[in-house]
Amino acid sequence: MRIVLVGPPGAGKGTQATRLAETLQIPHISTGDLFRANISQQTELGKLAKSYMDAGNLVPDEVTIAMAKDRMEQPDAEGGFLLDGFPRNVSQAEALDELLETEDMKLDAVLDLEAPEDEVVKRIAGRRVCRNDSAHVFHVTYTPPKKEGVCDVCGGELYQRDDDSEETVRKRLEVYHTQTEPIIDYYKSQGLVATIAATGPVDEVTRRALEALKRDQ
Ligand code: AP5
Ligand code: ZN
């Protein structure tokens, strides 16, 4: 399957993508994670992306689309993929459509994760991520690690993302409303959108997403 996950920062895209990708046996492709890997490896792309990310803005389309395309063309993505955080504006959605068309492929579904703004702000404020693996995500109140600051899965150090400050989160939410939300209508016109309530227990949200995917088949 080829799936796009969309939703405001903190809706739980990364959390759900990890689970859905495992269940569906497709790679989880997160442009945010790809940028963060470039930042930690201090590549040119990472240096460029960091300034945009820290300000809560989108990284320019040209580099983002090239990076996403390169990842989607890896052999493990031949049978399908789950895109998390891409596309993030209408021109990226158009670029993805073009890319899929040249390969004679189509998207199967767009899952729109909905959560109220006060909830996503609380989720982001308490989020802690493992330095070793971005799939190891915790929350200081909702899903606290057994030992403060230490990853339960691998023992790695937990940290707070640079773009999770209150000011940057506000900017990211504004960017989501003005630039990303329009892709929901874009995909609605293609009949691809399933809206998922992203509140309640993590397992419950995963169940809703899998149900929606079954209905679409
Ligand atoms: P990105 O990394 O994609 O960040 P985001 O979209 O802002 O989303 P988040 O990672 O903040 O949240 P999430 O929805 O994944 O939530 P999570 O599962 O972690 O992008 C970062 C930046 O990179 C962008 O601002 C931009 O600069 C750049 N970028 C990326 N893609 C780009 C693109 N295509 N074009 C241009 N620029 C791009 O959950 C959050 C917290 O809540 C966690 O602590 C989790 O444990 C907890 N939680 C999750 N679900 C639940 C639940 N059901 N109940 C209670 N707690 C929960
Ligand atoms: Zn870890």
Automatic annotation (TrEMBL):
InterPro entries: Adenyl_kin_sub (IPR006259), Adenylat/UMP-CMP_kin (IPR000850), Adenylat_kinase_CS (IPR033690), Adenylate_kinase_lid-dom (IPR007862), Guanylate_kin-like_dom (IPR008144), P-loop_NTPase (IPR027417). Keywords: ATP-binding, Cytoplasm, Kinase, Nucleotide biosynthesis, Nucleotide-binding, Transferase. GO terms for molecular function: AMP kinase activity. Pathway: Purine metabolism; AMP biosynthesis via salvage pathway; AMP from ADP: step 1/1. AMP binds at residues 31, 36, 57-59, 85-88, 92, 161, 172. PROSITE patterns: ADENYLATE_KINASE, GUANYLATE_KINASE_2. ATP binds at residues 10-15, 127, 137-138, 200. Residues 1-214 form the Guanylate kinase-like domain. Its EC number is 2.7.4.3. It comes from the Bacteria. Residues 30-59 are annotated as: NMP. Catalyzes the reversible transfer of the terminal phosphate group between ATP and AMP. Plays an important role in cellular energy homeostasis and in adenine nucleotide metabolism. HAMAP family: Adenylate_kinase_Adk. Monomer. This is Adenylate kinase. It comes from Streptomyces salinarius. The gene is adk.
